[in-house]
Every structure is written in C-alpha cells, then in structure tokens.
Amino acid sequence: MKSLGEEAKALIQKATDLKQLNDIRVAFLGKKGKLKNILKTLGKLSPEERKEIGQLANKIKEELEELLKSQETTLKQKALEEELRKEKIDITLPASWIDIGSSHPVISTLIGISEIFISMGFSVAEGPEVEKEEYNFDMLNIPKDHPARDMQDTFFLNNGDILRTHTSPVQVRTMLTRKPPIAIIAPGRVYRKDADPTHSPMFHQIEGLLVDENVTFRDLKGILKIFLESVFGKDVGIRFRPSYFPFTEPSAEVDISCTVCGGKGCRVCKGTGWLEILGCGMVDPNVFKAVNIDPDKYSGFAFGLGIERIAMLKYRITDIRLLFENNMRFNHQFKGIR
Ligand code: DAH
User: Fold this and answer.
1) What pTM value is reported for the model?
2) 33-37, 150-154, 231-235 — which is least confidently predicted?
3) Pocket of ligand 1 (CB under 6 A)
4) Exposure of 17 by Cβ count < 10 A (0-12 exposed, 13-18 middle, 19+ buried)?
C-alpha cells in the first residue's frame, strides 16, 4: 500500500494537465481504484492488523487527496497564465489604416473664394444647372444669332432647355427677384462641349454681381484686387485688359502675373509673364432693362471666373482631368489645404 502511495504521488507530481490529474484520482482513489482493491482484501487479516492497515490506508488517501488538490491549484494557475499570455493584446502595434476623406481641391478653392467675398458683404445665390435659354443667353444680351452662342458650345436637352454654359444666368434670376442694392456671388457647375488638358465638359464658375446707385469701375477694380491678393498673395501683379462680353459694357479681362515664373515668362504663361484669370465689366444697360431695373438710376459690375483654373494655378496642377478622375492618391495630396 505504501509503494502504491509513492507511485501515486510521483504520478501526481508529473501530471501536466487537469485531465491527467483526474485519471490518476480515479485509478487510485476511485470506487474500483487500486487502493479500494487492496482494502477489499482486509477481511483475511486479524482485527489489529485490519485496524493498522485501515489507518494507513486513510492516511495515504488523505495525503493523496491533499497532493491532488495542491497540484490541481498549481495546474489551474498555470493554465490561466498560459491563457493570459496567449490572449494578450499588444496595444503598441499600429492600428489598421482608416482612409478618411478629404476636401476636393475644387471644393476647397470654391469655399476659399466664396469666403473672401462673403467677408466683403456678398451673399451666396444659386440657380439651376438645367437652365432656360432665355436666362442663359437672351436676357444677358446675347441675341439668337450672336456669335457668342457659337463660342459657347452648348448641351441642349430634348425639351429645348440647356445645361447652363456659365453662372451668369444667376445674375438674371437674382435681379428678377430682388431689388438693389444687390451683392451676390453664385458658385456652381457649368457645362460646355469641350474636353482637353485644360477644358472639361463640366467645370465650376463663380459669378459676382453688385448693383447699387453710383457703382463705378473703380469699385470693381478694388474688390477684384482684394480678392486676387488674398488668393495669390500681396505681391501678385494685376492688369485689366479691354475685352468684350455681351452682358457688360465696358468689359475687361483680368490677368495676374504668372504664378510659376513670377512674370519673367515660362511655359505656363506662354512666355508672356501673365495669366488670364477672369472676365468682368459694368452691367450692360440692356441686361438691366431685361430685368426691369432702371439703368439711369442704378449701375453695377459683374465678374465671372473658372474655379478649376484658379485651383490649377494655386496648386500647380497641369491637367484639368486629374481633378475629375477621383484617384484618392491625387485627392489626398490636398488634405487640409484651403
Ligand atoms: N460668363 C462669362 C464666361 O463664362 C464670364 C464672365 C465675363 C462673367 C464677364 C461675367 C462678366 O459676369 O462680367 O465666359
């Protein structure tokens, strides 16, 4: 019985998991275990021997149970430590990348420009992209047979409406519904049948319109100077060139000194040192008449500019199509720029 006890102790100490431990318990202390088997033979012994052996058996049983218990605790502790080790989360590992969006350079530019004019008291007006020919052309003093209509290669809808070719119809819509003084900008999408590295069939413009008594060309110049200097910096060169638009008289195109070479002449400015940036002028009396505003009482100026062109010059983007491909690697480069 003693050697059985020793054998069991050795096995318990060597056990490496709880199942083994339980098997040992059953094999030695179970109902049909080795210890019970020996005790079954006690009948042949004398009462004294039986007592002695019985006490010994109890002692061994108690020892084994105690050992089993402590070994069980040790193994449970080990198992727990192993589990904790395996399931440990390494919080120092970099997290997986979440691709957050970014403002599109055209939208950043649009918002940036709008904010400059809003800070000078202009408010934002809107008009539809599907427009009446009347508002897009006729009421802007562009007659049916005027070559300007050819200049603007227009998308026509089946019902005779068009996709607006510029944001200027918002001038008409605003003056039809509001009385002067008026100071609005109208940013939005416009459409022309045009597609090459510097032209897109859809692009964005901002229109400006200011109407009040005694508005002069000087006011126009002052406002545009503040605008251009806030976008391109205080040192930017600005020049007004006489031009023609049916809806303004007199009309001008505004150039800024080349943002790439600073005016020396390069590929971007085609050697001239200047970049054409916007069209403007004093609202033509014929436009005022079309919207029932008295041209003898009121005067005003208007201007229009392409947002993609400004974004391209500001960010030095050389192909307009990059702005519409929506390649995230391109778009992300303008994160946070405004
Ligand atoms: N609508 C013109 C265009 O799309 C731009 C323009 C020029 C707008 C002169 C104006 C302006 O308001 O006065 O080419």
Assistant:
1) 0.72
2) 150-154
3) 166, 168, 207, 245, 248, 279-281, 302-304
4) exposed
